[in-house]
Amino acid sequence: MKQLFIVLGGICMLILLVPTLLVLPFQGESGMPKTNQNTVQKEEKKTATLKESPVSIPVYRTADRQVEDIPLEEYVIGVVASEMPADFDMEALKAQSLAARTYIVRQMVSDQAVQPPKGSLVDDTQMFQVYKSKSELQQIWKKDYDWKIKKVTEAVASTQGKILTYDQKPIDASFFSTSNGYTENAEAYWTSDIPYLKSVKSSWDRKSPKFLNHKTFTASEFEQKLSVTLPNSNGIGEITERTPGKRVATAVINGKKLEGRDIREKLGLNSADFDWKRKGDQIVVTTRGYGHGVGMSQYGAHYMAKEGKKAEDIVKYYYKGTAISNADQFLNKYMAKK
């Protein structure tokens, strides 16, 4: 009888242990069933999916001289792909997506300072934002097209429907390639004082391949381009004032006062932060940075992202006091006007 109880007890213990023995081989180190871990991993690998936009942008295609209606988010993809290198960090591409979408939404609902060709909202040049279609990008990127367009599309999809606002209005989301170490106050380059476009330090830009540039002119070229007469065979002129962003505000050449922006544009310089030296008949102009310097630095955004900053951190650093908002109310307003 005693042996019977021992046998029955052993059978009961075996019944209790079997479920545990069956589960253990399917558990990972965390104790979570492997099937669940696989589900978590799949969820982590999910990428944002672009939703079809009901709003289209009439874009004047300069090559064809025709207006083409392009779905909003497809337009943003074409702008981001054209304005920022696709091999930039994903968070920088997301920041560029927010800026590009904000720019076009602002065009939809604001009075335009620059008028596009009749029947369009913008053209496809840097006068507004550079835009290229997927077929054009395929010709440019060739064998790299698939991974580049996938990456840009994911950046746009992850920010879909979002724009940057200040005082509940879309901002002028100005951007440029590389700063001289500082961005610029809007009023120092343009005429308007814009509260969210203020000079901020951007030391990351020193890593940019476009940070430093040298350009050489003959003395006669220099005089002709700037409509000046050099004072003597050794001199050039004096830089008399700099902006809050450390760029040249004014310079005087043989008694003639010139604006730094005008010098940059007439000489075709990369930046308005420059110095010059004369060696006989040669004048060497050294610039720091690339672009007007107002708003978001693209290389700054890239290296901020490399340090772990998110797109929201980037845009809020370069566009002071702004918020990330839904674009729906502005898109509805635009559609109502049509």
UniProtKB/TrEMBL annotation:
GO terms for cellular component: outer membrane-bounded periplasmic space. GO terms for biological process: sporulation resulting in formation of a cellular spore. InterPro entries: Bact_Sporulation_Assoc, SpoIID/LytB, SpoIID/LytB_N, Spore_II_D_firmicutes. Residues 65-166 form the Sporulation stage II protein D amidase enhancer LytB N-terminal domain. This is Stage II sporulation protein D. It comes from Bacillus swezeyi.
